[in-house]
Amino acid sequence: QQSQQQQQQQLSSPMTGGYNIEQECAASGGFISFELITGYVLSAPADSMVMQPGTLQLTDCLNLCRQNSSCLAINFETGLCVLLQESADKNPQALQKSQFPVFTIYAHKICLQGDRTNRCLKSWSFERVIGWVLNNLEKKTILTKTRLECLLACYNEQAFQCRSFNYDSASGSCSLSDMDRHSLPSAALKRRHYVESTVDTIDYGENNCIQEARGICDFKPLANRILKTVDSIYQDIKTEPECRKRCLQAPYRCHSYDLGDSSNPVCRTSHLDRNSLQQIQEPYLDIQGALSYELDSCYNVTVLCKSREMVARVKTNKIFNGKIYAKNAPLSCMNDITNSMDFELSMAFNDQCNIVKSHSNGVFSNEIVLQHNDMIVTNSDMGLNVKCQYDLRNQTVYNNINLDDFMSGREPIDIASQSAVVRSPNISMQILRQDGNHITQAQVGDSLLLRFQITDERSPFEIFVRDLYAMDGVGGAE
């Protein structure tokens, strides 16, 4: 206990060291963040490190280092945080693999420079995977002098959302991609693209600062396994729904959670899952009856209510191949999607999409389906109910009148306001040429223009045409 108190006291005072990355970063207009390397540990002399046992969250360990100007890096495993005055940038030979009996997480400070209005607020900004590469998915390739320059190019990319990069230290080649280990939709694609590098000069980097879908999420269970090392432990949370909530609200891209040993449940969350653990040997503990939950798909769904249609817009966290369609009109109201993470379905206010209309309260609603396989409905598909509400009621409009200017010298009149019920406006319809000019005769096949107009120019209403019927004069209509 005395030793632990001494360590606590040592942490409260600055570590001694010569190099101050904060001063150098601030002078260049940047801000401090961290880069993670999972499965590695930095060896350092005992007098250049401070241990903090009992640390259950990686974010707490990073914050301790962030608050200490002499701390350059940390080693972390569940329950132990070590603050370091050295880093792999200054001493790369000191960085060694550390995977047994549990794997260690190493992180060092980096200086992020770029748009201050879009500063990354995550606990760390990037993760590096030594000796691995994401092949054949680059969107842009540039040359940079250092790996940090390549990282900053990804962080500041404006043409697309850069999710990852490959950097070759031998050639300076920096390949930016809008894909990463988690956005590929199938295990086969991951095995084809995310592979060990054939040369030892290429590393993979993944962006933790990206904005990704977290609205409606699906997790898949992994039976009888839990991670040896996790990012966070919440001892007061012992139920699966609450643990899932913690994962989705984590200050990092959380991809898995578990409740530990079922005999003594406790919530544990991590940025790692099977997609990002290929470089780690035996990352799991085998515990009979235990369950881990890995993030599969997430969707952000928004509805745009227009005058003639409602548009359901969907953003996903991984590549979507399939279709989106109205449940009750799968053929006439459908959109085929190929290799996209951002797509939509437009549903016109006519009979094509079978939109349910409630004129009493102005609600227009429909059920849509996200189908992952273009031909087959599976249990991974998702149904959603989308609604738009329009105020279609008659309204009373009040207009205050200032009579002082023209009532001077006259008898006062007890009028402070006037009111009127705004009823449905009168609408005219004209049949015109395509250029908008009047027409006196037409033949079958001529292109015509139908113009609908509110006759009262002072009317506060705007209009949209919802249904249009052509009558043949003998009772037929289309």
TrEMBL record:
GO terms for biological process: anatomical structure morphogenesis. Residues 304-478 form the ZP domain. It holds the Pfam family CUT_N. It comes from the Eukaryota. This is Uncharacterized protein. Residues 25-107, 120-209, 217-298 form the Apple domain. CDD domains: PAN_AP_HGF. InterPro entries: Celegans_DevNeuronal_Protein (IPR052774), CUT_N (IPR056953), Pan_app (IPR003609), ZP_dom (IPR001507). SMART domains: PAN_AP.
